[in-house]
Amino acid sequence: QVQLVESGGGLVQAGDSLSVSCATSGFTLDDYGVGWFRQALGKKREGVACLSSSEDSTYYADSVKGRFTISVDKAENTVYLQMNSLKPEDTAVYYCHAEHQVITMTEFWGRGTQVTVSS
What we know:
Elements: E1 3-7, E2 10-13, E3 18-25, E4 32-39, E5 46-51, E6 58-60, E7 68-73, E8 78-83, E9 92-100, E10 107-109, E11 113-118
Parallel strand pairs: 2-11
Antiparallel strand pairs: 1-3, 3-8, 4-5, 4-9, 5-6, 7-8, 9-10, 9-11
């Protein structure tokens, strides 16, 4: 059974750092690109950071460049998002995503973890 379970969200102050994790099971990350998306209240879900299956290509939204870092530990089947210099506008539910790099329409989502940044 495929599962993506996020953890590590919480309430922090502006300027703080926070790391969220995504524990995966039921599939191997070797063939999947991974990413983090977020959805703030009343807004559309947006891509925050993505990492290719070969780990040689990354994407970051302009709003988080230089502050967020995505990484993966394939031995532990876990995806991470390190968030530094957090801002109130980073407040959102953060979702983990995995997408097969070859087989189209094969993707999985976690249920999300809430990150709240107070000013």
